[in-house]
Amino acid sequence: MDVIAAIATGAAPTAIGILRVSGEGCFALCDAVFRPTDGRPFHDQEARKMVFGDVLDAQGRLLDRGLAVRFPGPRSYTGEDSAEFHCHGSPVVLRELLSALFAAGARQAGPGEFTRRAFLNGHMDLTEAEAVVDLIDAETAAAARNAAAQLSGSLRRDFEQIREALLDIATRFYAVVDYPDEDIPDIHPEEVAAALAAAEGTLKRLLATCGRGRILKRGAATAIVGRPNAGKSSLLNALAGYERAIVTDIPGTTRDTVEESVVCGGVRLRLMDTAGIRPTEDTVEKLGVERSRRAMETADLVLAVADGSQPLTREDRDLLEGLAAQGTPWILIVNKADLPAAPAPRLVWGQGQRPPAAVLSLSALTGEGLAGLEEAVAALFPAGNTPPGSILTNARQEAAVRRAAEAVGRAREALAAGFTPDAILTDAEEALDALGELTGRTAREEIVSGIFSRFCVGK
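Structure (tokenized):
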């Protein structure tokens, strides 16, 4: 493969900037732009050890002084000869160094091309490649831990174990189908049934993690709802840590949804501050109320805010009863704990209704009680006993695992019903195809290209 190069750090000035190079012959190109202070050429430096030297531009002039390291293939990220330059993080320095490498014969790397080469060279499968993106995009510690475990091969090991079991079954049945007259050892249905049941159990366990995976990756869509002036925007600002939404004493200030992403209780919440819900003849405010109701219907979590300094109104009660009937997890927040409290409301929930997961008194203005909200959110979205790395985090993985689980289930049912071996083989092969798509063994080019198109340049 030709030599590729790219800046691996961001465009803003930083203390250190990193530039990556990979491909056969890249060490010779690096010799043209880096002069170690020990006098030995870069290509002769010790592998995987930083060396200090002069960084040169395309005309051989001193550009910077920094560090470089070479990674001979196949023991490198990409599986081929690779190198990194660690310079001062001036965007100008990095661009000039990149231009010098282009002049020496390298070309600009495409999005995700380093990781794609690692995949093509057998250094990772598609689940591990997707984990690279998840790790870069992680906004919570739990998301980072799950991605790091997947990058270490946790999902791949699960899938490889299932694949080996299915291949063993398929091999036995192929022998019976293709060589019926040969003296082939008998197939023991109980052993095959046990292997299929174990494979189906693992796949279903993974499927059960999809909801948690969506929260880890995208965050929980969280609607903040309530009457005008209950303190919804103040709550959003308190959670965000800055004045994200306009707060006034005038009812109906918020006419449209205001969104902000925060981490609360270790969970990423995609907060939506909505228009106050009340009857109105104002055309613009009416549109805002309609959007508020749609946000409630599609949210993963609803924070219902009531003004604790005033008695509950009929509008408050209608909203709370509607939430209880809707079934979405919700938390009742009695706001304005810094003001004299009105008499505590008596709330009764009917059969089939979902009461709030927690009822909290807090002050969005002073921050009093916010710790209780973090605890309530953490309890609603617990990490559970699922070990990091065993959580499916995207629709592609979910769809492929579902197809594999359904095919294994059909094979198990066919075996129990006494069907001929070829019927069981058909389902086993479909499961193998789905697993191959997951790991990249049989994935189509458009799937592979789609995955790596999500990467940034330099990764």
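The radius of gyration is 29 Å. Confidence is low (pLDDT under 50) at residues 250-256.
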